[in-house]
Write a structure and sequence with these properties.
With 484 residues, the protein is α+β, with helices and mostly antiparallel strands. 46% of the residues lie in helices and 6% in strands. α15 packs across α17. It starts with 18 loop residues before the first helix and ends with a helix.
Length: 484
Amino acid sequence: MALELKLAPKLVQQLVITPQLQQAIRLLQLTRLELVDMISQEMKENPLLEELEEGKESFDEEEQAPAEKAEAPVPIVEHTAEVKGEGEGSDEFDWENYLENYNLASFSKQREQDGEERPSFENFMAKATTLFDHLYWQLHLSDLNEEEQRAGTWIIGNLDEDGYLKISLEEFSAEAGLSLERVEGVLRKIQEFDPIGVAARDLKECLLIQLNQLFPRDPIAEKIVQEHLSLLKNRNYPAIAKRLGVSAERVNRAASLISRLEPKPGRAYGGEVAQEIIPDVYVYKVEGEYIVSLNDEGVPRLKVNSYYRRILAEGHHAQQDDRKYIQEKLRSALWLIRSIDQRQRTIYKVAKSIVKFQKDFLDRGIQYLKPLVLRDVAEDIQMHESTVSRVTNNKYMHTPQGIYELKFFFNAGIPSVQGEAMASESVKSLLKEIIGRENPRKPYSDEKLVQMLKERNIHIARRTISKYREMMKILSSSERRKVV
């Protein structure tokens, strides 16, 4: 069979995303800090971009609008077309309209009263002490020789963020050429460091280390941790009392002591660091109506450098290569400015639509949060769902009820007996409230919670109750039970 090559025409439809459209899409999903960093980088790479000075209403003094025009009210554009990525920018960009509308709903900046410069922010920053630093400092204060110091450093370096040692001592003993007894001696020394219970290999060892440091010691509590930890987890105090031959009251006192111990000794020096959230949108209630305001504080307002604009205007003084370079950078600058403006307007429109749908939540709290999906907002503002999804990613809104991520307002609906749906977050809040009022000696089972919600016209399955409990980190009824 002979093989041959042939050329055949084929018609194929293919979606090509231009670099400009890719930039516009990327801008939509950036956080405020990422946007500021991106603008700073673009200003370094594009000499035509400059930051507009505060209070300046136009790019050049000769182009400034009259004062009367600046004071005139600016109409709010209700519908802004999505950026389609068509073209590469235009020299006929409406600069005046851009300047007038860019800060249309911006959050006004607070000015310094005394005019004095504040100290540099770096002067207030300090490196947080890690668990390794804290233990390493104590290790060098202990009376250990050089080999034991090295073994101690290895142990401290292999602790997880909760303070537990998950690596085998036998493995290190073989690699370091130290006896297992000597390595275990160093481990016991480290387990006496602050925080007490650190470097334990499991929960039982961690709790026993802490109990051994108490005075007077409680032998019943030590016995419970040593032999009946699973019964303690399920709060089966009668079974523990029967096996130890003591009263239920005595077991309850020991369990109360154990509950005050720290199961994660390294928690104070690790884990997630609380991050300050700067809202992208502020919502205020003024005379019964909610006003949406964008937070543009810290985001540079851009303009095109007047020097390069004059070079293009006086083209006969510039070489062809220079003029071509400036035109390329001008198109890039125009597209960036337009994309940032479009980003701000899109965030404003999405936030305004959310406020319209969730007015009851803003008035009365989380239990009145309505079911909402991306399609509802997309149809309301006449944009695609993917655009709304990108806009709500890592964006936060400050409301009278607190600060929430924009994605928080989108919830699946839970059907009710009367047919009116209820948001899943509202159901979680109601569950938390019911469990918070229960009798600790007789906590509600998941089945009982299903019945109680049904009495409130909320139809929900037991497995959904269990899933919501796990999401809110609420224990089961047997683990919540307390013997008083």
